[in-house]
Amino acid sequence: GERRRQSRGMSRPCDERGFREIYATHLSVNEGEGASYPTIRVYQAYNKQIAHAAVEANSFAAPRDDGIWSESRMTWIKPSAAWMAYRCGWTLFKDKNQGCVLALDVDRSRFEALLMQAVVTDDAPADQKGTFKEKPVVVQWDPEREMDPMLAAGEASGKKTGTEPYLRKLESVRSLQIGLRGRASALLLDPTFVRRITDVTAQFQAAHAALIAGDAAAANAALCPDERRMDVPKQLREVLHMDIDTREEATHDAPEVVVSSVKLVAAAAAVSSAGNEREELARGAMAEGSAMAEGGAMAEVRSLRPSSLHAGTSAAASSAGWASRRSCATSHSSATRKG
C-alpha cells in the first residue's frame, strides 16, 4: 500500500555503525597554485543575514564586522547532516535564526588538533560538569538521527507537533557535537581552519521534500551522499572516549541473572540431598538468590561472570545465558541539546 511505496530506497546504514564513531563528508579544497587541503565538513545553522554575509566573503569576519556575529559567543558544530536537520527542523520548522544551514569545510589536521583539546561532558560525574564552563572545546555524544520516510511529523520525537519529521532517534548510535568557546570559537575566523563556507540550505530542503515523496534514496543523495567513517588516531579516540560503549550498562544484569539462577539450582539440589542443617543453608542460598534476582543485592555479584561458576551448574548457566544474549540483542536495537 501507500506505506510500502513510501519506503522505496530506504536503508538502515546507521545500523552498521559503531556506538561512537565520527561520520562526516570528506573533501579536498583547492586554493590555487595547486594547493589542495583535505577537509572534514561540519554544519551550523544561522539566519539568512549571517549566512549570506559569511558565504559571500567565505569568512565569518564579514558578519562579525557587520555586528551580527561574534566569536565571543559559544557555538556548536556537528559533522552529521541528519543531526543538523534535526536541530534546525530541516530549516523549515524552527525559528528564523535556524533558517539557513552552512557547511564549513575545515582543515582535517587542524580539526583533529582541535579535538585533542576536547573534554567529553557525557561521561563526567554530575558534580564536575560545572567545571567545563571555561573549557574552550567540549564534546558530547548525542543520539544520532536517521532519515525515514515512514515517520511523519511527531512520530520521530513523540510530540503531537513534530518539528523534525522523518528523523528517527537512534539510542544505539551516537553523533558527535562539538562546542567551541573563546579561542576555539575564534578559529572560525581563521581561513587556514575554515577552508570553505557553503550554503547548503537547498540540499536540506530537497532532502525533506524527497522524504515527503517517500524516496529515501533521493533524500540521502541530496543530504549526505558522501558521509563516511572518519579514521581517528588512537590517541584522539581516547580523548573523545570513542571506545567507551555505555550500551554495556544495559546488559550488566545478564551475569547477575546467571548467578541468581545458578544459586537457586544449587540450593534446590542441596535441599534434596542434605540433612536439616544443610537444608537450612540451602534455603538461605535460595533466599539470597531470589533477592539478587529482584535487584536487592546486585552490587555483590557485579564482578562475577558465568565462567567462574562451578561446572555442576552448567544447565542453569546455559538457560540464563540465553536470556543474557536475548537481553543484549534487545538493548542493541532499542538500547540532547545544544545549537
From TrEMBL:
Residues 330-339 have a biased composition (Polar residues). Residues 311-339 are annotated as: Disordered. InterPro entries: DUF4291 (IPR025633). Residues 311-329 have a biased composition (Low complexity). Pfam families: DUF4291. This is DUF4291 domain-containing protein. It comes from Coccolithus braarudii.
